[in-house]
Amino acid sequence: MRIANVDGRAAVLMGDGIADIEEATGGLFGSSVNDIYERWDEFREAALQIDTPTAPLDLALLTNPAPMPQQVFAVGLNYRAHAAESGMTVPEVPATFTKFPAALSGPFDDIEIHGDSVDWEVELVVVMGQLADRVAEADAWSYVAGLSIGQDISDRALQFAARSQFSLGKSRRGYGPIGPWVVTVDEFDNPDDLALGCSVDEEVVQDGRTSDMVFPVPSLIAELSAIVPLLPGDVIFTGTPAGVGFTRQPPRSLQPGNMLESWIEGIGSIRNTCIAPRA
Ligand code: ZN
After folding, report:
1. 25 CA distance to ligand 1 centroid (A)?
2. What's the CA-to-centroid distance between 237 and ligand 1, angstroms?
3. What is the pLDDT of residues 226-272, one digit of tens each?
4. Would you give the end-to-end CA distance of the chain in angstroms?
5. How far is the CA of 97 from the centre of ligand 1 (A)?
């Protein structure tokens, strides 16, 4: 199943169309996308009964399918080759920071470019479907609603200002596009091994596989939920593979006019146009 946010309304994809959840469930569920994750088991049952689309799919109407999570976790240095290109050793525990929820945005939203240090980071995004508190690695996938594509857009100057302030440097407005939809875990043959990558103006700059993660998704959920409960609708940005811009010689950054396209096997792709800062 694929869950979408169509202009602020929860929907599931059906062939070439979408089924609006409030309409298709006769009001059993409202229009809120977050309610789906809050009532995940009940929603899955109800969604199985939906058999008719209520509207055609219009990509231009899609916004973030995991809107305003209570917590956003992001993991640095979770691919060995990316840690190496950053001149860092792989940490013993997940290097965790947050992207503030108001920074998240939709799959086709524009990205405002500030200065010469805004960088790309394609990432597998996990959306939680159950309260996960002290979860064992072996059970971790059953707490996940689904997977989506994210860009952990990073302002490197801000990220490394004041020695290091990752959370702010990764939370400028719109610096967390997610989408185009959330694909439930049962749709993947192997959710631990997905090809992912991104391109700038059609030049491929990142090309990796999620099986290269230092801490795979079940391990991240076990490690994080040992410290703090993960809540339904929470989001985990699981780290980026090698190929970011700031470690290149010379360094590269996104510029207004660039088109950033990001893809993950079994999910699809998102596209974000880089623009000059709005007034
Ligand atoms: Zn990242």
Report:
1. 37
2. 7
3. 999 999 999 999 999 999 999 999 999 999 999 999 999 999 999 99
4. 40
5. 9
